[in-house]
Write a structure and sequence with these properties.
- By secondary structure, the protein is mostly beta strands.
- It has one domain.
- It is about 15% helix and about 40% strand.
- The chain contains two helices and ten strands.
- It has an eight-stranded mixed beta sheet, covered by helices on one side. A two-stranded antiparallel ribbon has the order 8-9.
- The longest helix has 17 residues.
- The radius of gyration is 14 Å and the shape is globular.
């Protein structure tokens, strides 16, 4: 299964549109931290192609885990409505975007995505996430002090 997130970079957050290739219109939107040079816990991750697995933790219950993110560990896809408050480099699906890095109704969007991924994994498919485009040079925001 191929998932694509097409991003728009802003100084206060990164917004995206998530589509499952071959399955019709976009599934949901996404929110992330702004691009801050891939700084752990402060930046969204680099654009690229990542393998996605299902993972369980006490904090997030079932969620998605991106594999082999350069310079980063435990990059997850889980529910959140405000990137600056709730994310540390992870990706959150949302139903409605409200501003850069914020949205509404994350849990329903996440549940829709998990249903697709779970079905694909039951068919023994590998899940790939492609994130585009690369951040333009002028979108690099300074790391807050």
């Amino acid at each position: 299964m191929q998932i694509v997130i097409k991003r728009d970079y802003h100084t206060k957050g990164t917004n995206g549109v998530l589509t499952i290739i071959g399955e019709g219109p976009p599934l949901c939107h996404t929110i992330e931290l702004p691009w801050r040079n891939n700084e752990p816990k402060l930046s969204c991750i680099p654009a690229g192609v990542y393998t996605v697995t299902k993972r369980y933790s006490q904090k997030f219950k079932w969620h998605l885990h991106l594999q082999d993110v350069p310079g980063r560990t435990y990059i997850l896809i889980h529910p959140a409505n405000n990137a600056e408050i709730e994310l540390q480099g992870c990706i959150a699906p949302v139903t409605i975007l409200t501003s850069p890095g914020t949205g509404l109704a994350s849990k329903p969007a996440f549940q829709k995505l998990m249903a697709w991924v779970t079905d694909a994994l039951q068919r023994n498919e590998t899940i790939f996430l492609t994130i585009t485009p690369k951040p333009p040079a002028e979108s690099v925001s300074k790391i807050p002090k």
